[in-house]
Fold each of these.
Amino acid sequence: MKRTYCLFIQFYLSILITFVFLGVCSCFIGKASANIYKSRINAQWSGDNSHFWYRNDLAKGHREFVLVDITEGTRRLAFDHKKMAASLSNIGKVQLEAGKLPLEGLKFDLEKSTVSFRALGRSFLCDLKTHELTKIEQPKKLPKEKKSGTKNPRNNKEAKPKSYRPSREISPDGNWRAFIREHNVFVRAREGEEEIQLSEDGKDGNSYQAPYWSPNSKNLFAFRVQPGAVGDVHLIESSPRDGGRANLRTRRYALPGDKFTAHELNRFDVEKKTQTKPEVGIIDFRGPRLRWTQDGRYFRYQKIDRGHQRLRIIEVDTFTGKFRNIIDEVSETFIWTEHPKDLGVPLINWLDETNEIIYLSEEDGWRHLYLVDVKTGKTKNQITRGKFVVRYVDRIDKENRQIWFRASGLNKGQDPYLMHYYRVNFDGSGFTALTDGNGWHNISYSPDRKYIIDQYSRVDMAPVNELRRVSDGSLVCELEKSDITELEASGWKAPEVFRANGRDGKTGIWGIIARPKDFDPKKKYPVLEDMYAGPHDSYVPKQFSAGRRFSSWTDMGFVVVKIDGMGTANRSKAFHDVCWKNLKDAGFPDRILWHKAYAEKNPWYDISRVGIHGGSAGGQSSTGALLFHPEFYKIAVSSCGCHDNRMDKASWNEQWMGYPVGPHYSESSNIDNAHRLRGRLLLIVGELDNNVPPESTLRLADALIKANKDFDMIVVPGAGHGGGGRHGDRRRKDFFRKYLLGIEPPNYNLTN
């Protein structure tokens, strides 16, 4: 009873806290959005796509209605708001303000120069020349007639040929049954009792899986599977909510170099009772996912070698057992196979109707699209080409043989990370830029997909909205520029964008700077770098935000920066390759040059006091800053860090550090280099981190102790992958306040 009561109280308090939190957040969000006007357009298109209207919400609760005529290419107020207010006040016998018209469901007839709408609980028709209103009587809703004999629309479509679905047991001709017994492949005639053993090399720990029949019922294909030797990771829950003893949580967790499950392809001829092994190689990274041709004659699958330096699309002939490589890409560094989801498109896109593949590759030094002929395995043509990066594929239009995609780096004079929209034909012709403005773009299409509403912004520029043609990307008209007058009056300041040359003396390194609210250029400010350099992405914000970025830090008196150095993604292959077998680099040579270049122009920027913090891969890098660059970085806080790449998930680390595990893993290890520590270091880790094993941080602590180094450490009971919650956040801030600002934290034991 006592426990039930406690749980009830705990549940009630959690609900109460949640509502309070949401209330506070909603107030904050409401206040922030109320300070920005004309930033978003919710277009209401006409049925014939000849025009659309939208509403601008303005200061003091005012609003305005805007009409865009596509044919004329014009934007104007939809009507005279004062005259409309007068007409509506008169007919509705209420007093309405011109800036607060309660209009809904507007429908314009441009030929007749009228608009219908709903207001005051009634429907009206307005003559736009005179602004006279006529009440519209709404027709009574008639009961729906019951339809009988309705056919399923699926039945009305032309029948499509069915794709071959390989049988795993009964042969397509129905004469044979295949099965696995004692780890080996057997067949038996459906009408007989005699069993035929086709394999003899299956055994415990290396057994065959259920085979696949070929469509001629003469051949079987089966994978012999050898389980991997993946170890366990252990987590100790020291303080269970229900009390009692600590809990041990154990789960399988593959580390770099672990033996993965291996799949060996075998072919069996039922009539000849023979077994062959196509020389396609063992699949020991990701299980095979077979893709069968419609007639079943061939199956295809993707094979990625451990270390991610070779990728193949293999086709196997089920009649002959012969195979060929449709795609076979080899890289001296890595092929980016682990994060294609971040690209919005698979690496391999099958076009079955034309027997082609759209393939995403960096083989020419930039991330581009290629058209591959499946029959020959030859590249028909490179679809996109140039010193830019394909970021997302939004649509593959098979009928018109076009690709609609996003890319960055094409616009000279702009930040190379800014996202723009494009269209291109499969053969590489018809390359069309749909956007142009200097910013990060987000678009919405008209219903007929002939026009786009393009909104773009930067961290230092509020959103701009334009109407553009899809045919050639040309501008129809400017729609709105955001009004942030109130936001700026409240003290909001945009971050500063800064570019400096990297280690090669020519490549641009881009970052942002957030200053304190009460910034005084006559003072000296310590610098705090918010760090993450996971090679799978880029991390400097590019879009406008009404929030005060990093305000919890800048309000304390820090200048906060965020930088994308070499080794991160979304630039050239060479830029990205810096991380290869070298995660300790983390772009630090570029980052340090960037800091120094900015300090030369801004004396208030104190690079004698530079701190750095980050979590996960950022936790590894922030500690690495002190170990490998102690001459520059003096203070670091590292949360949930991967401090040795041999102790973190295999899929991610082998992508960048390669396979097999070699001396380069040790060279990038914070643990093996712990003796280098000179600055001040705080480590934070949750004891239940299920992403990066906590033992990584604990072993770093052990190495630091053995090296007789001083450091601080917080192990947070019950916490997972993150910064240690409220306690970790407070300790992080106190750490930087003490060692960068010289402010001793209060004695919380006395103040709480």
Note: Confidence is low (pLDDT under 50) at residues 1-34, 153-157.
Amino acid sequence: MLSKSDFLLFLEAPMHLWAKTHNQLQQKPLSPYEQHLMLQGQEVEALAREYIETNLLPNYSDAQLLWQPTYHDNQFEIRADALIWDKTGDYYDLYEIKSSTAVRTDHEYDLTFQLLLLESFLNICHVFIVHINKDYQYSGEIDIGQFFSVEEVSEKIEKRRENVLALRQAAMQVPLVPLPKPSFACTKPQSCPCPNLCHPNLPENPIYNIPYIGKKARTLREMGITDINAIPVDFPLNDKQQRHVQAVKEAKPLIDKDSIRDALAILEYPLYFLDYETFNPAIPLFPGYRPYEHIVFQYSLHVIREPGSDPQHFECLITDKIDPAPMIVRDLLDHLGDSGSIIVWNQSFEAHRNQDLAGHCESFSPQLDRINDRLFDLMKIFKDGHYIHPDFHGSASLKAVLPVLCPEYRYENLQITNGEETMTMVAIFHHLQKTIRRSNEP
């Protein structure tokens, strides 16, 4: 039988479904971050059930909630999140729970697959998605009536009916193929669950490393090309993509010194190098926060007062079960002067965090606004293609750039090697505090 999860795997790439049904998916333990997301999803699901029972079920005059019922017809199988049986009208409404803050396209495919099976057993009247309300603001206690939003997607589902009917039949055929076709493969080797099938013998410089290659990767693969070095000179690529291909083929970096010099010319001393660490829980922890809003719990600041001077380092880390924003802001402003460039990596992220902090510390809003006026995004030099190195592998992330330019600084030498791990450790810490507090309650 083809389950809903099988169907969604097929939509990722037919190869992923083939690998699952032939026991060739890589078996990897869940990372701490994936475990955190799973735990968070379970917490949202528990709240959603309470929301359906207390806020939606009473809207029916005589109804019964069916929680996570399973249905199959020997071909297809689904487990619905929630069905409400209206006994008066003798019909069922389908409710799907999502931890997102909006309805996504993949949700519509998910629900269409469910509906096609359910309607052979039940009289389905309406289809809804229950998702988190992005505008909800936590006041100290969760108000589940405001925390969730409900959107009817019946019409959207109906528009996808014929497409999903065809897709699920195509998915049924995939496991029957004795050997998978090359066209079954995905185009994301870094996250592929079966790289030995989708991307066997991947070259050192695969086409997937070309920035924003998108659907062109599939076109190249259909031409039998997976190595950047084999891309024809007349293959349509934009200027940045062409420059990356050139760097790989020439096996040397492309450095536009004039553009880099012009970009750096606007910097003013003292130079401040600022980085925030955050985590963004689905269920807000502190009053005034919204779902998935980033909570800044740490900053790191290096200061170079004048050319040639040694950098000074300042930092602040808040792990107490309190809103860290006021302490972070006060400490940061104590070390940020009124002039000088503030250098960041990915300006959009840091600028939005300053806006968030200003919202939680209104008395410091003018100072935080002025910080944003002084930001300089060092990543743009690499993202805009002024410095391209084959070993960046098409990425402008600090994790890709730093080890190439400064080999002595390597992420794998750190105890926590990326932002996801940092976010996870803080989330686990707060979860443990919450668990300990509950266990001590009378």
Note: Confidence is low (pLDDT under 50) at residues 428-442.
